[in-house]
Structures are given as C-alpha cells and as structure tokens.
Amino acid sequence: MNTTAETQRSRSSPATEQVLGAALNLFTEQGFFNTSIPDIVKASSVSTGSIYHYFRDKEGIARSLYETLVERMESSFSEIEATHATAHDRCRAAIALLFELTEQEPAVMRFMLFSRHKEFIPDQKPVCSSRPFVQMREMVVAGMKHGEVREMTPIVAASAVFGGALRLIQLRLDGILDAPLPEYLDEIWQCAWRSVAV
User: Are 168 and 184 in contact (CB under 8 A)?
Assistant: First the structure.
C-alpha cells in the first residue's frame, strides 16, 4: 500500500501526470485487468523504471488516479458549497458540474462512477462512500435542516435529487443519449427538486 508520502510523490511531476492520463484512458477503454505496465509505458512515453519508481505497481497507479480524481471532485464541490447559499442552488450546481465533466472528460466520469474499484483497489472505500458523494448527501441534509427539503431518510432524499442525473450520465456515456447533457439540465432538475422540495 502506498504511504501518504509516496502518494504525494506520485502526483508531483509532469511524468506522473502523463502516466495517470494514459492509465485513465487505458483503464476505461480496455479495463484495469486488460491493461499492462508495458501498455502504460507505450501510451505515456514514460519509462518502465520511472513508473515503478513513482507508483510501485499497476495497483499503485490506479490508487493514485482514484485519489487524485476524488480530491479534484471534492474541491469542486467545496467551491460550490462556498459560492451557493441554498441546498436548491448547490444541488443544481453539482448536477451541472457532473454534466459538464461528462461532456468534457468522459473518461474521468467512467472511471469514477462505473469502474469496479474494489476489484483492483480492494482496500479503497466504494466511490459512493467517498468524500464527494458524502458532500452531495450533506447538501441535501442541509436542505432538510433549513426547511427546503421534506424530512425523509437522507439517502433516499439524495437518491431522489441525484439519481436521475447519474442515470442520464450513464446513458450518455453508453451512447444512448445523442444530445449533450446540459440540454437536459433544466428538465431533470425540475423533476429532481419537485421530488423532495417542501
């Protein structure tokens, strides 16, 4: 298992960013188990020795990639919380962000939402328990405390608010939806908010 120092070291150079970018594309295109270190070497143009120096093994690359993307999403949600005052506005902004990320960086969303991380990073929490998803639930719970959202089981409320949007993301990534996700934002948001609003 990587230590904190090793994890920080693995994110500290242009070479490691190249490795993480190549690994992201390969893991989402052909799967973790069908991707080899030589595949990552070829796609990243980073030497085998450098990869093993920074990441130790393929699992270390996957862990670093997961942690990097979780931290990035957490930072984005924290910014939403700081710049929007109500649960209504925060939750809508969170969905808008996820839709934009899906359009601009589909591999990121595939890796974060639909990869089975426990299969190749067994000591990692499920993505639904990661800090960004906790933040999403906290946005809804704050809405209950401030009288915007009806009292109900928090996980049910969060599923009602975000579940439809996450399903649309999956459909978009699977090629079922032809139109960009932001075109559906107003419609899905109205449905989501009506399901929980006081």
Answer: yes
